């Protein structure tokens, strides 16, 4: 392979790798660039390398995506090969045969590579809405907030972090693995989401402590002398949680991602933020970071208006530089910093 071909392949491989491990939609892959490279090259090296970075990737072998997803990906890869080369590539057909023989599980996996060389792997529902909740899949704003956190670890280092509406757990797991919080509290209100959260925390090698709302009960755990944070999962229903229950968390930082999906949720979120602000007024005011995708501008306007009515100042966080995770290129996402 010529040096210029090798350089282009080096750019293509991470793109295929990150998208496949995260099980992104097939239309998001750089298929056109691949076709151009296949036409310019005579050997199978590029396709074999893509196979090793995707279906044969160690993370994928250990924690596979859905069978349907792998089948569709390999079928498209074979089509691209056949459109350019007449000789079949046995390795592609063998990989497809293995996938065709596999059974489709109810849970599939997505993996996200971190700059440290570590990764976050999530077990997720194969349906976008499952068990009456959207919390069993990872949404783009969670990826966006995780990127910002990785670029700004000082916002979380040696601090108690409370996440509202943790969903599948991507943001929190990335923060736990890269930002050194002293304590991380995942929370949600759906039983099935909480069960999956616990599974994902253990799947990523973190220890899970008994469900408690009082981090102060474990003073012996200190991030200054421990490599991993204290991690708990809490059932937290924004509409019924009491001020004493919120005060027991003692958070230094509060975060939430992609929770502004309807007016009712916006109002519930602002109410719980008000309660947090009131019950923590005798300690240093915590920072709050809320990330969201602007799908409906009216919903976002409602959020900022309700923050104003509640007396909670806010400011927009500047867009960060690095794009570590594969999400929709043209998604309009924002992070607001709230001063509680």
UniProtKB/TrEMBL annotation:
GO biological process: methylation
GO CC annotations on file: protein-containing complex
Entry keywords, A to Z: Acetylation, Methyltransferase, S-adenosyl-L-methionine, Transferase
UniProt key word Acetylation: yes
A Pfam family that the UniProt record links to this protein: Methyltransf_16
Example GO molecular function: methyltransferase activity
InterPro entries: FAM86_N (IPR029426), Methyltransf_16 (IPR019410), SAM-dependent_MTases_sf (IPR029063)
Domain FAM86 N-terminal as annotated: residue spans: 11-99
Family: Belongs to the class I-like SAM-binding methyltransferase superfamily. EEF2KMT family.
Stated name of the protein: Protein-lysine N-methyltransferase EEF2KMT isoform X1
Gene source species: Enhydra lutris kenyoni (northern sea otter)
Highest classification ranks of the organism: Eukaryota, Metazoa, Chordata, Craniata, Vertebrata
């Amino acid at each position: 392979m010529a040096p210029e071909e090798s350089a282009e392949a080096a750019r293509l491989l991470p793109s295929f790798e990150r998208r496949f491990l995260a099980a992104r939609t097939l239309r998001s892959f750089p298929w056109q660039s691949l076709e151009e490279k296949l036409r310019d090259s005579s050997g199978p090296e590029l396709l074999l390398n893509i196979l090793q970075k995707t279906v044969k990737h160690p993370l994928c072998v250990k924690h596979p995506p859905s069978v349907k997803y792998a089948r569709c990906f390999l079928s498209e890869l074979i089509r691209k090969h056949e459109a350019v080369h007449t000789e079949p590539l046995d390795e592609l057909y063998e990989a497809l045969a293995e996938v065709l023989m596999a059974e489709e599980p109810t849970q599939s996996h997505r993996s996200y590579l971190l700059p440290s060389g570590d990764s976050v792997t999530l077990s997720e529902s194969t349906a976008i809405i499952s068990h009456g909740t959207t919390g069993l899949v990872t949404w783009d704003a969670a990826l966006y907030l995780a990127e910002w956190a990785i670029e700004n670890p000082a916002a979380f280092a040696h601090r108690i972090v409370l996440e509202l509406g943790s969903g599948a757990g991507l943001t929190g797991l990335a923060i736990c693995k890269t930002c050194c919080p002293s304590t991380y509290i995942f929370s949600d209100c759906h039983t099935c989401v909480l069960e999956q959260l616990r599974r994902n925390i253990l799947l990523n090698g973190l220890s899970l402590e008994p469900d408690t709302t009082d981090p102060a009960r474990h003073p012996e755990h200190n991030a200054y002398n421990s490599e991993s944070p204290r991690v708990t999962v809490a059932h937290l229903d924004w509409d019924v949680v009491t001020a004493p229950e919120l005060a027991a968390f003692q958070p230094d930082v509060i975060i939430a991602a992609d929770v502004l999906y309807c007016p009712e949720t916006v109002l519930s979120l602002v109410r719980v933020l008000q309660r947090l602000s009131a019950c923590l007024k005798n300690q240093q005011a915590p920072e709050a970071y809320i990330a969201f995708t602007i799908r409906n501008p009216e919903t976002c306007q409602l959020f900022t208006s309700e923050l104003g009515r509640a007396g909670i100042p806010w400011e927009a966080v500047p867009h960060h530089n690095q794009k570590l995770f594969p999400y929709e290129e043209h998604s309009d996402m924002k992070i607001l910093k709230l001063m509680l």
